[in-house]
Amino acid sequence: MNYSKIFLSTLLFLLGSFGHWYIMYWQFKSPKWITSFYPYLLALACTFLWIKASEYGVQGFNGSMWSNRFLFFVTGVIVGSILYPIHFGQTFTLKVVIQLVLALLIIVVSIW
Fold first, then answer.
1. pLDDT at 112 exceeding the cut of 80
2. Which residues are within 8 A (CB) of 60 and not within 5 positions of it... i.e. 6 or more apart?
3. Number of other CB atoms surrounding residue 18 within 10 Å
4. Cα–Cα dist 45/64, whole Å
5. ∠ Cα 71 74 78 (to 5°)
6. CB of 79 within 8 A of CB of 14?
7. What are phi and psi of 2, to 5 degrees?
8. Res 70 pLDDT > 80
9. pLDDT surpasses 80 at 47
């Protein structure tokens, strides 16, 4: 396992996930957002970030596609847990906390 590549992959997945969150959910704050060209440009940037993140992640996990896929999933969950409360005031419930803990355990198992 190459932890530096896994770390770089995680950072790139996180950056792409932040962009993706805004692409998908900012339309509920600003309805004109989705009709502008900005989310589409952002989608191109996020796609590039995710392609590079996958390259580094699969290398870091010694060829494991599954570990890389779970890393991609979990980074999206983490980003949502940050941005939903900030922009929409949706608080953490016990159900959400349990889901976050399970998501983090997926990564721990992948790295372990």
1. no
2. 1, 2, 3, 4, 5, 6, 7, 8, 9, 68
3. 19
4. 25
5. 135
6. yes
7. -110, 100
8. yes
9. yes
* Domain definitions of the chain by residue range: 3-111
Q: Which tokens is 71 given? A: 């890393």
Give the amino acid at 89: G
Nearest Cα to Cα of residue 87 among 11, 19, 43, 21: 21
17 Cβ neighbours under 8 A, 6+ residues apart:
46, 75, 76, 78, 79
Report residue 52 as tokens: 């590079």
Three-class secondary structure of residue 54 per DSSP = helix
Asked if 68 and 1 count as a contact pair (C-beta separation under 8 A), the reply is no
Round to whole Å and give the CA distance between 110 and 66: 9
Residue 111 has pLDDT above 80, yes or no: no
